[in-house]
Amino acid sequence: MRTVGIIQPSYIPxxxxxxxxxxxDVFVFLDDVQYTVRDWRNRNxxxxxxxxxxxxxxxxxxxxxxxxxxxxxxxxQPWQRKHLALMQHNYGKAPCFGRYxxxxxGIYAQAFETLAELDIELVKRISAWLGIDTEFVVxxxxxxxxxxxxxxxxxxxxxxxxxxxxxxxxxxYMRPEIWAAADIRLAYKDYAGYPxxxxxxxxxxxxxxxLDLLFMVGPDAADYIWGKYRKRDGQ
Length: 235
Known about the structure:
Blueprint: E1 3-7, H1 15-23, E2 26-29, E3 43-47, E4 53-57, E5 60-61, E6 72-73, H2 79-91, H3 97-108, H4 115-129, E7 135-138, H5 148-158, E8 163-166, H6 176-181, E9 185-188, H7 210-217
Parallel strand pairs: 1-2, 1-8, 2-7, 8-9
Antiparallel strand pairs: 3-4, 5-6
Helix pairs in contact: 2-3
């Protein structure tokens, strides 16, 4: 069986995003759909030392009337320096901060012109840190057309998938009959059961960037995503 998952590129996503990647054989960055502003495409949250959370946003050009793959970063703003400084200020004393921060500095030093390129590079690097060996594909390189699950079905077919893993929110519009007719099993991701882990301050914030988890527990991060601390139905 070959399982395919498809999600839009996101900026330093939460741990559920990487749990999803870990569960599939092929992960597709859906970069050829409309860009949504003030969304996960260009921002995410970190934990702060005073018990709050803080948004890190990548400034972009052009607004909402463009595809994700065409969104350019506003590099006239010193956003890289700001994001790295905020990470260092809040996580500098975290147990495993030094294990990853040097590589992050190297990524942020690259001259990314588009948001998708930045998001994809960060997701691939973080996946490697987590020990994920899933195959990555970019949707715009496959040439699928159509809307919603028609497009998704084309992508899965092009990749030889037998199973399509969808996010649970997609149940509102998915048409199971077209997947059944194509002999592709439709499954939905379960994001329940993620355990708490030590953070730099209370209260616990479950939906911050996965970098928070990595900075705090380092190589044990996978245990808090799909590993031994994850609580699933029946456990």
